[in-house]
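Aim 2 progress update. The chain analyzed this quarter is reproduced below.
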Amino acid sequence: MTMKIAVGADHAGVPLNETVIAELKRLGHEVVDCGTHDPSEPDDYPDYAEAVGRAVLEGKAERAVLICGSGVGASVAANKLPGIRAALCHDCYSAHQGVEHDNMNVLCLGSRVIGPELALDLVRAFLGAKFSGEQRHRRRLAKITALEEQDLRGLK
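Predicted structure tokens:
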């Protein structure tokens, strides 16, 4: 099944970004390219997290791949957008299980942590998985949505 996939990376993710985009196109997916392609330009991973997250939330992409140096900052930033369920994955089990159980819609990768072949395996596992829709998983996702809808600014 082919999909529209948003892809974004900061300067640290550029080489891996290019590899992922090429593989997505080879597999027949449509790529929504959120940048960047110039590692010499200073930039900030939250900007790319917002770009890929908005692409998913606005229906311009079904899922997204987000890349920074470690993948941690990208994951943290993407998860600030209500409705985005982003996870940093270093193994294929988590990449597919995150979709099957948690309806993960953004795969985060650390370009300084994993190599290109593992990254491509992770992308294929992520895209090949489907949300199970089991009652226990829907119940847990409803709790996550409830957390997103809470106004926690008054907590100290």
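Residues 135-149 form the longest helix (15 residues). The chain has a mean pLDDT of 96. These observations will guide the mutagenesis experiments scheduled for the next reporting period.
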